[in-house]
Predict the 3D structure of the following.
Amino acid sequence: QVHLVESGGGLVQPGGSLRLSCAASGSIFSINAMDWYRQAPGKERELVAASTSGGNTNYADSVKGRFTISRDNAKNTVYLQMNSLKPEDTAVYYCHANIFSGDWRVMDYWGKGTLVTVSS
């Protein structure tokens, strides 16, 4: 079994910063990609930032210049540094990974999410 566990969410004032972490554990052969999504109430889940093991990154237009995704491949962990947070960033943030697992399956895995609330 493969598990993704997010951490780092919480309440922050506008203009503040948070750093989210997502650690993958379990029977993992390799991780092809790790990404961050978010979902606000009443809205569809959207891609926030994406990364590959080769270092390629991609960001939603709404977070460019404010968010930074990074990976520690040795620890099977992805981070999302969020700066200059805005109320519209409020959402549940989900970690996603495409993983070649130890049971010879390539699958998408999702964490349970961590809530980020930006409010004064």
